[in-house]
Amino acid sequence: MASETQKQKVTGFVTHLLNNPDIKIEPPLVAENLIINFISKNLNQLKQTFKSPQFFPDLSWDEALQLILVDLRERILDSILPELIEYLNNNINYGVINKVSEADSVGASFYKNKFVEFVKTVLTHKDIRYNFNSVYNIFKYNMLEKYIPQIFERREFVFNELTKVQKMNLKPEEYIHYLKIIMLIKNVAYMKINFTPKDGPPQKASVNEVRKSAKMLGQFMDKLIAEIKVNLPSVSDKIMKMAIKSNVPEEMTELEDASARFIYIFTARYQDYKPYKKIDRGAESPDKSWFNIARKNAEFNGYNRRMIDELYRIAGDNNW
Question: What is the pTM of this model?
């Protein structure tokens, strides 16, 4: 067991990494991933460095690394969870789950408590944390509140996809909360689970390993949904499937999975988002610029081209 002195050295080392100028400017969830990548790329050098007296000469490499990763994880979670939990408690209408589910109605407070505990639990997984950065940004900067009213007001392609094709009778503000619910679930798909394909050997797999096979994706979803149900027992399979499919390219979705296609694009946009204070004269606004590039690479990235086109126009018209 590590001594207090060793723990203090670990804390000092993690603080040093977090204060690196290139890392300090990044949001917490991205900063953590950058540090982990740095450690992975410099293993041999760090192994030697840690043996020196000012570091961890009395700890094995595995012990030192584990202490560092745990300290880093706890500090990242401490930096985002209070704000995120407050958001979950005050900025999501969980009653919309009943409106889109075939199951019996459950009280919104029940859902709220379940989702708060669910998010606290799943964010202990590294891959889920990193991919959650887009959701964190979308919530923090009210991006759904910006775009969804515009989509409903214009009543163009995206509106038809989200309402008529998907057969959803929701008001704009209800659709915002529906999408938030999906986003809270979606990143669980990046957690590796024990999974046995019908035509293959047992393996540990996340959505990354099954996203190119419709058959494997279906089997993976069934297994993952069964695991999620332990924490979210009253959320319908329909919502959970939409959440999981929001991690895969357009060609892996069904016609009625419009929300999944929209979220796949929207979360890609805000994964590396940084708020801007001023747009340089003559420059495209950040969202317009991103959607413009995404239009050119839509097929390669698995984006729905017509959704991208409309989001590009909305961003341009509003100087976003």
Answer: 0.93
